[in-house]
């Protein structure tokens, strides 16, 4: 399969786009062009009303042509000690830069957490202070109401006591006047 793909790529390199377009427009040229390639077969398909279509078929490669399609790797460039040192220094700089960036991000996160914690503590303190002030006001109000209630009860008791004394005095006067 790989050899077929390589052969197809090689043939497609040989056929320029211009010649492919020309072969679509001028069928007689296409017939002449197709005679040049033994392992590539192009069949026209006349199923479209809008234009022409073609089917490209690759023929299996022969063992003789394998040597011709062998691709050699480009020669490797010699790497000097200076190049290696430069690459290592660049990698070290990138590592240090990335490490510094991570440390900055962590410091910013820590600062943000500290700010949030301080704000929460301040809000908690404010809430506690406000709750204590409200409680103090409420306790003062309760004490004032209690004192007023007790004073009202004492007034009523004193009034009842005066009334009871008056009733006793009137009763005594009545009994003294009845006896006399």
From TrEMBL:
PROSITE patterns: STATHMIN_3
Protein name, per record: Stathmin
Keywords: Coiled coil
Pfam families listed in its UniProt record: Stathmin
Domain of life: Eukaryota
GO BP annotations listed: microtubule depolymerization; neuron projection development; regulation of microtubule polymerization or depolymerization
Coiled coil stretches, renumbered: 81-115
UniProt cross-references to Gene3D superfamilies, sorted A to Z: 6.10.280.30
InterPro entries: Stathmin_fam, Stathmin_sf
One of the record's GO molecular function terms: tubulin binding
Species, as recorded: Eleginops maclovinus
Keyword Ribonucleoprotein part of the UniProt annotation: no
């Amino acid at each position: 399969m790989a050899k077929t793909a390589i052969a197809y790529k090689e043939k497609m390199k040989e056929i320029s786009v211009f010649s492919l377009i020309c072969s679509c427009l001028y069928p007689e040229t296409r017939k002449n062009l197709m005679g040049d390639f033994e392992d590539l077969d192009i069949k026209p398909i006349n199923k479209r009303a809008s234009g022409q279509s073609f089917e490209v078929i690759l023929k299996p490669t022969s063992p003789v042509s394998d040597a011709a399609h062998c691709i050699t790797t480009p020669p490797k460039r010699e790497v000097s000690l200076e190049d290696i040192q430069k690459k290592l220094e660049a990698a070290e700089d990138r590592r240090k830069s990335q490490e510094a960036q991570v440390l900055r991000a962590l410091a910013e996160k820590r600062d943000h957490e500290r700010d949030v914690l301080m704000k929460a503590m301040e809000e908690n303190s404010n809430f506690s202070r406000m709750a204590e002030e409200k409680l103090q006001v409420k306790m003062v109000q309760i004490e004032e109401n209690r004192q007023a209630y007790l004073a009202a009860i004492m007034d009523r008791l004193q009034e009842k006591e005066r009334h009871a004394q008056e009733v006793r005095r009137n009763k005594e006067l009545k009994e003294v006047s009845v006896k006399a």
